[in-house]
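Predict structure. Chain length: 338.
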Amino acid sequence: MDNKSFTFLITSNRRGETQSITMRASWVKAAIAALILSLVLLAAAGVDYFGLLLEQGENKRLQAENEQLTRQFQVVESKLTSLESSLDRIKTLTTKIKLITNIEDEDRVMKLSVGPLPRIEQNMAEFDQEEERASGRNPASTEFIRRDTPFLEHPPLDEMRGELAATREQNYADLSIRIDKAVHDSSLREQGVIRLQELLQERQSILNATPSIKPARGWFTSRFGYRVDPFTGKTDVHLGLDVAAAPGTPVMATADGVVSYIGYEAGYGKIIAIDHGFGVRTRYAHNSQIYVELGQKVKRRDVISAVGSTGRSSGPHVHYEVRVNDVPVDPINYILDE
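Prediction complete.
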């Protein structure tokens, strides 16, 4: 049995008294062990506390970054939605232009929308060559651009040279700028497509409103210009073109327009006038029957009347006139199916 003990002397400088405390060795060892254990526990608690503080700060930082990334993602998502909507509108407009122009090549339609239009007498091959010379690129580079994505502004990166790793370090600002540029470019392209569509629709309207066919199946008996009048035998100006045909033969509108006049005149008999817009009017005379009404819209090749011999006529035929700004012109120049 261990009977060792320790005596601790406590002396006071003021009173000069000395006190002694005697403790068994086992108690002293137990007190020292308790003290060491308390210090270890206190140190562990301190480490845990500081760890919690650091973890809390890290959590706050990560939460702030997450909120920032969420906001940035929402901004990017909004911009991408705008870009997708613009591209969808471009695709729809491009489809309409393809229908108007009968051009199957979508890239060629897009070239028309962002570049100069070809001349009327110029074929598309010549136009393509002029575009390549003007832009300083070759067909191969043009083909590469066609395969490009909205965000790919440069050729594919070489991973072996570290270019891909460098690209991964681009921050949100760079991405946002690239998206803004893509949105801006798509907006410009959309405006170009819209302008092209309006121009082509206007040209299509002009083409639809331009007389281009013979008004009836038959043969020409009297041309535009000076001729000998069959009734007076004198030279006179013939303001139209006579197409002889069997009675009742359908008379067709030679272009899109609106029936602007229906009447009976001594020289012309039963007559119809169609206003095609753009200052162009056509007149059809000597009809036996009329199948349209005043103000009715008609299309090219719509049957409007039947061949007859009403009015001052030597036989069944249709007297056909084309007037531009009320000036009679030779109708033969407006018949393209002969």
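Summary: The chain has a mean pLDDT of 76.
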